[in-house]
């Protein structure tokens, strides 16, 4: 990221061990999408209220994620159809810290996001053994039901509020790989506020001041919608148009 030193200079750092006190594996989420030209001003306003995750002097991290789905994209379709009690299944590598996890995200019918995960020794994924057992325990799927569906790569800034009750992720440099097809969204920023329960948030106040409204579309669904020809799109067309509008905007 250009001018990253100046961009992050107003933040006090927080270590990975300190941040892990705010795990929020069972949480309420609120998501925002906006053009990258807004980012400098937003971070300048947030610096007073948030710590920034710092790993060996680096203040944004590279993420590589492989999502799994059924051959007919059942998980994507459930999300498209607005079904709650739905899942995402993925292997995620936190490249800079050399951490690898198998993760299951469950969106309950009460609107809460519950994440289960297993730490892995390397980035070689397999749905056998402990990962397969967790899959069958936490989801309606078996390992034989799933195939790799989409690779999602991006960079992430992670902020923690100074009350240690909220985690904020800001993702940029988003790109997708689905078989031979690739797509990238270089000007899109996706920010997500994660709280134990819905409450006041300085970041949400910043969004309101800038007249940026909440807009929820998962990175997985956005990637499938941009790379797979035969999936349902009707209920996502408005959100895809919103993303396209972001690319024509300037701060």
Number of domains in the coordinates? Answer: 1
Question: What distance separates the N and C termini?
Answer: 18 Å
CATH superfamily: Hypothetical Protein Pfu-838710-001
Subunit arrangement of the protein: single chain
**Second rung of CATH, namely the architecture:** Beta Barrel
Helix content: 10-25%
Give a count of the beta strands, DSSP E runs of length 2 or more: 11
The residue-averaged pLDDT reads 90
The count of helical stretches stands at 8
The shape, in one word, is globular
Radius of gyration (CA) equals 18 Å
In spatial order, strands of the major sheet run 2-7-6-5-4-8-9-11
Unreliable stretches: none
Fold-level CATH name: Hypothetical Protein Pfu-838710-001
Order of helices and strands: HEHEHEEHEEEHEEEEHHH
Defining key terms:
Hypothetical Protein Pfu-838710-001, globular, 11 strands, 251 residues, alpha+beta, eight-stranded antiparallel beta barrel
Produce the secondary structure layout.
Blueprint: H1 4-8, E1 12-14, H2 16-19, E2 26-35, H3 39-46, E3 50-53, E4 61-69, H4 74-80, E5 86-94, E6 99-107, E7 113-120, H5 130-138, E8 147-161, E9 166-178, E10 181-185, E11 188-195, H6 202-209, H7 219-227, H8 237-247
Parallel strand pairs: 1-3
Antiparallel strand pairs: 2-7, 2-11, 3-8, 4-5, 4-8, 5-6, 6-7, 8-9, 9-10, 9-11
């Amino acid at each position: 990221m250009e001018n990253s030193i100046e961009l992050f200079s107003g933040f006090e750092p927080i270590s990975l061990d300190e941040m892990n006190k705010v795990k929020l594996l069972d949480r309420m989420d609120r998501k925002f999408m906006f053009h990258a030209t807004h980012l400098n001003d937003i971070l300048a306003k947030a610096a007073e209220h948030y710590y920034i995750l710092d790993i060996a002097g680096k203040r944004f991290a590279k993420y590589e994620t492989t999502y799994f789905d059924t051959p007919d994209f059942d998980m994507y379709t459930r999300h498209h159809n607005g079904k709650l009690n739905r899942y995402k299944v993925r292997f995620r590598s936190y490249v800079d810290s050399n951490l690898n996890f198998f993760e299951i995200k469950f969106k309950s019918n009460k609107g809460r996001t519950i994440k289960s995960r297993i730490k892995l020794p390397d980035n070689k994924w397999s749905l056998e053994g402990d990962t397969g057992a967790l899959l069958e325990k936490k989801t309606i799927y078996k390992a034989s039901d799933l195939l790799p569906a989409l690779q999602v790569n991006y960079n992430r800034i992670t902020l923690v509020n100074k009350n240690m009750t909220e985690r904020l992720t800001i993702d940029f440099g988003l790109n997708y790989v689905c078989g031979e097809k690739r797509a990238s969204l270089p000007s899109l920023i996706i920010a997500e506020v994660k709280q134990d329960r819905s409450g006041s948030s300085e970041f949400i106040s910043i969004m309101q001041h800038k007249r940026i409204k909440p807009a929820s579309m998962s990175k997985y669904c956005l990637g499938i919608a941009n790379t797979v020809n035969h999936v349902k799109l009707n209920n996502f067309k408005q959100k895809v148009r919103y993303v396209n509008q972001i690319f024509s905007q300037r701060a």
